[in-house]
Amino acid sequence: MDRSKNITLAIVATIFMFATAAFGADNNAANTLQEELNDSVVPGKTIDEEEFLCYPPIIPEYPGGYDALMKLISDNIRLPKCVKSGEVSGTSVISFMVQPSGKCDRFKVVRSLNKECDAEAIRVLKNMATWKPGEEYKFATKRYEPAGVLFTIPVHFKNKK
User: I need a labelling partner for 133 at 20 to 30 A (CA). Which of 19, 35, 91, 125 fits?
Assistant: First the structure.
């Protein structure tokens, strides 16, 4: 078995043993699972320490931060007629890709409010400034490098009466 299967099996076995102990199930099933786990361990193989180091990705950042992004949206949004009349209010959720260059593309509606609101949300988001790109840790070079990151943002539509 490969390392990831061993780790997964160990996690499942641990959870199963705690669950059986907590709910009073018989120990035969837990013992069988533990024996299977012991049989799957390959002696003499160690797991590289580097596999367990945590290098969280760095998320993209809009110039000026989240507040500046919300201000851009609120200043530039044109409420569709259906929102102005009070027929519709709610949130369109839009996802897009922040490329390693900081440019945004691949705009997609994740949760639709209606076609007019979705189109307006995408129109405003397409006019955003270039972002500071996200980064991910590359083990080959031992450093963070720019990476494309999927970003999702809600755009709220409400009549301001």
Answer: 91
